[in-house]
Sequence to fold (898 residues):
Amino acid sequence: MSYADYTLGDPIADTAAPDGPIETRWERRRFGVRLVNPANKRKLHVIVVGTGLAGGSAAATLAELGYRVSAFCYQDSPRRAHSIAAQGGINAAKNYRNDGDSVYRLFYDTVKGGDFRARESNVHRLAEISRQIIDQCVAQGVPFAREYGGLLDNRSFGGAQVSRTFYARGQTGQQLLLGAYQALERQVDAGGVTMYPRHEMLELIVVDGHARGIVARDLITGETRSHLADAVVLASGGYGNVFFLSTNAKGCNVTASWRAHRKGALFANPCFTQIHPTCILVSGDHQSKLTLMSESLRNDGRVWVPLRKGDDRDPNAIPEAERDYFLERQYPAFGNLVPRDIASRAAKNVCDEGRGVGPGGLGVFLDFAEVIDRLGRPAVEAKYGNLFQMYQRITGEDPYRVPMRIYPAVHYTMGGLWVDYDLQSTIPGLFVVGEANFSDHGANRLGASALMQGLADGYFVLPTTIGDYLARVGHEPVDRDHPAVLEAEADVAQRIDTLLSINGSRTVDSFHRELGHLMWEHCGMERTEAGLRKALDRIPELRKEFWEDVRVPGTGVELNQSLERAGRVGDFFELAELMCLDALHRNESCGGHFRAESQTPDGEAARDDEHFSYAAAWEFTGRGEAPVLHKEDLTFEYVAPTQRSYK
Amino acid sequence: MRLHLKVWRQHDADDRGAMRSYDVDDASPDMSFLELLDVLNEKLTTEGEEPVAFDHDCREGICGACSMVIDGQPHGPEKATTTCQLHLRHFRDGDTITVEPFRAGSFPVVKDLVVDRSAFDRIIAAGGYVSAPTGSAPDAHAVPVPKDQADRAFTAAACIGCGACVAACPNGSASLFLGAKITHLGELPQGQPERDSRVLAMVAEHDAAGFGGCTNTGECADACPKEIPLDVISQLNRDYLAARRSRRRSA
Fold:
C-alpha cells in the first residue's frame, strides 16, 4: 500500500467549542472552566517550548498566575525568537478611526480571508481579544506609532477596507516581542520561570495518554535530558523552512510539532502554506534565505510589470501607457491591497506570461514614485524608511529612485497541530499556541493577524483554558525511571547516534536544498495532481538517501550546528510527504492552496464546499506509512461561504 | 570573487584558540557575509573538517544573533549594518578578511565565533520592564503620549541586543545597551513608576556582570547596527544620579 492510499478514520466529533450565540461563547467558556486554587498553582509545573509572541507571552502570564514554568528556546536568548522579524503590524478591532470597524467585521474579514476553512468560534474569540492585546502592549511600554495628538496611529493592510492595523514603524514584531520578553524576564527574576535558552526539544514524553514532559538537548554541552511537568505547551512556530528558502529564520523548524505528531497529536491542514507576495528576489545559488518587504508597502506602492513581453528597459523609461498595474486592473475594489494569496498568484501569472522582470523573469515592480510625488520623500521616509534601507542594503539599489523588484516567497504556515477550542491537541495536556497550531487562519492568513493570534493565544486564551485541564486531572508526579521517560530518552539518543554514524558524502544543507526545491516546484504556489504524485514518489527516495549518505561532522557532546540541522531536516522529510498528500487529497483550490485543476473561468481559486468544507487532521502511523485522515467538519452559522471576491 | 579568510577557531571555552586561514574561490558579490561562511562550511564539511560555528538566525538584521568582528569592526565595515546584511559587494576580489568573535570579558567564547551573551538577559531581568501583569491594562487611549516622546522611545527600543556596542568599547561597557532600555521606558508615561528602581537595579546587574564603565569614547554608537544614539547614555547617567539622590533623601 502506498503512502497516498490513506485511510479515513473517525470524524472529529468534539471541538470543545460552546454553541449558542457566537458573541458570548468565549465568555461562557471562561465561566465554565474549573479554576485552580492559587495555593495549588505553585505546585503545578508547565513546560513552554518556544519564546516567540505566543510562547513568551504564555510563559510570562502563566508565571504571573502563579504556575511554575520552564521555558525553552533554541536561540541564545528568548528575545531572538522569529516573531521579532514581523514588520507590518497587528490588527485590532478598536475602531479608533470610526471607519465602521467592529469585532464582528474583523471576525467576518478573517473568516472570509481564510477562504472559509477556519472554525468560526475561534475566529470570533480572536477578534474579541484583539482589543485587549493593544491595551496590554501599550501598558507594557510598547512604542507604537502615534499621531501628533498623542493617540495611536493606524494603517490599512491587505484583505481589509478599514484601517485597523497598529504598528511600530516597520518593526512591530520586534516591539511586541520585546514587550513579551521583558514580561518573561520579569518572571525569570521573580523565580516563576526557569529559562532554558540554547535548548532544543527533541521528544515529547507521554505517560498514560497525557503529555507529561519533553526530552531536550542542551545545545552547548550536547547533554540530552528529560524535563517533566503537569502540562506541555508547544509554541514552536511554523514549518515554512521545509522549502529551504523562506522568510523564516534559519533555525525555524518543525521538530517539536513533528515529534508530538508522531506521539499521537493530529496534524491539520499541512498543505495550507502562505506565499507572501512581496519578497526580495533570489540573487543566486548561494541564497540562504529570503527577506520579506512588509505588506504595508502595498498601501502606497503600486505593483506593475511591462505591458510587453521581454521589455527590459530601465523601469523609469517605460511610459505609463506601457505599464500594466495588474492588481489595480484585475481587482479594482481592493487594488494593490488584495489578500496575499491573490497578490502572489497574480504575480506568478504575469511572470508565467513572460512579462516578469529581473533575473530569470521572476519578479514584478513595486513602485513608490507616485507616493513620493504626492507626499514628498520625508513623509515616505518616516513611514517606510527602515524597509527602504533594508532593501537597498540587500540589493544595492535605491528604491527612492528605481522601483523595488519583488517576487512571492514562502512566509507562513496556516496548518499545524490540530487543537480544540481550548487550544488542546489530541494528546491531553499538550497545548499548542501561535503559528504552531492550525486554528484561526483557515486556508489563508490576513496581514497583521499572526501577531494578533500569537498574543491572543499566549496572553489570554491558553492561561485560561490550561487551568481547566490542570484543575481536572490532578496528576501524580512522574518517576524519572518511568518506562515512557526512558523510552523517549533512548529514542533521542539513538537518533543522534544514527545521524553521527552515517558518515556519508553529502552535507545536510545539500539535502535540505534539494527537498526545498522539490517542494517549491510541486507543492508551492500552484499544485497539480501530476506534480504532487511526482513529489510523493521522489521524497521517500531522497529521504532514504539522506539516512544513508548524510555527513554530520563532530560529536554529540558539544556545540554541533550540523547535528542540529540534520535532526530538523530529518523531520522535514516526513512532514514534506504529509504536505504533498494533504495537497493531493484536497482536490479544490482555497486560499493559499491552489490546485490548477480547480479554478474558475477567470483563473480564481474555485472552492468545493460540498466535498471539502472540513479541516483535514492527519494521524501518524509510521514513517512512510499511509496516515489516517480525521475530518473536522466546518459549519458556518454566521458568515455564509461565498466565492471570495476582491474585484 | 576569490577571498582569503582568517577565522578564529576555538574548540570550546577552555581551548586557547587560534586564527586559521581559508580560501573561498567562488564567492559572489551578491552573497551576504554569512552566506560566504555557509559556502566555507559546506567546503569544510565535504573535506572532513569541522565547520565554523557561528550564531545567526533571522538573517535580516533584526534578531541580533550574529556576533562577529570583521576586519576589526563588530559587524564589519558597513555602517548601520549587521553581519547578516553585509554583502560581499563591499569587499574586493582578492581581499584578506579577518573574522573573530565579539571580544569582551563578559561575553565568554563558547566555540569559534559563538559567544555567551546571557548577561544581557540578566540585565533586562533586573528591571528592564514595566510591571503590567496580563489583564491589568487600561484602554490603550487612556494615556496619550506626545509623538516626539513616543518616537524617541521607539528609536531607543530599536536595540537588537546583539552586543556590538560591548565588543566595540575599549572598556567592554554595555552602557549603550543599558541606556537604550532606560531611555525607551523612561520616555513613556507607563515607565515612570519604576523609573528609579529600574535604573538602580539594571546598573547594579550591569556592573556585577563585569561590564566596564563608560568613558565617552563613542565607539559603541559608531558600531551599533541600529544607530542607537549616544545620548541614551546621558539619559542613563541622569536617571541614575536622580535615582541615587532620591534614594538618599528617602533613606
Observations:
- The mean pLDDT of chain B is 97.
